[in-house]
Amino acid sequence: MEAFFAALESIGFVEALRFSRWTYAAVNTTHIFAIALLVGSALPLSLRLLGLWPTITHAHVARILSTTAGVGLVLAVMSGFLLFATRASEYADLAVFQIKLVLVLIGGGSAILMHLRYGWDIGRAPRLALRRAGVVSVLAWTGALILGRLIAFVGD
Question: How far apart are CA 136 and CA 66, in angstroms?
């Protein structure tokens, strides 16, 4: 695996990204913006699934926030991969990074499964399924956010 990470780091555009102050800053800013879209949408949606704002239908909340969270997730994964590639060998060894990836997979997987099972109008899902999805989402996305921030403070 180390050879794969070393090869990833040595790709021309990855090396250019690593050594370009402004391009790296732009990708990093994109990643932060994407996380804001993702977490800023997923948390209110999760709170609605947990029972807050009962007068607002799940369909109305989910239509907007699920789409926004999905766009944020796609942008975060794409920009995050570019950031990871610049120091893949180092990041891959960090426990906080590994756990963050697991939480992202859990959060994203849970949302995808809910929508595959119940469609965009997740309000027709059983109450227990909605609450379970809300808890998983809150824990996964806040955990991933915290661990992602900690990456800058651990390691070498």
Answer: 15
Which amino acid is residue 118, in one-letter code? Y
Convert the pLDDT of each residue in 16-44 to its tens digit. 999 999 999 999 999 999 999 999 999 99
Ramachandran class of 31: left when φ > 0, alpha when ψ lies in -120 to 50, beta otherwise: alpha
Query: Looking at residue 50, what DSSP letter applies?
Result: T
Residue 118 DSSP symbol: H
Task: Kindly state the DSSP code that residue 124 receives in the 8-state scheme.
Answer: G
CA triplet 45, 135, 76: central angle to 5 degrees?
Answer: 60
What is the per-residue pLDDT across 1-15, written as a single tens digit (0 to 9) for each?
899 999 999 999 999
pLDDT tens digits, one per residue of 73-109: 999 999 999 999 999 999 999 999 999 999 999 999 9
8 A C-beta contact, residue 96 and residue 151: yes
pLDDT (0 to 100) of residue 156? 60
Closest CA to 135 of 43, 62, 55, 72: 43
Nearest-angstrom CA–CA distance, 25 and 136: 31
Axis crossing angle, helix 21-49 with helix 58-86, rounded to the nearest 10:
150
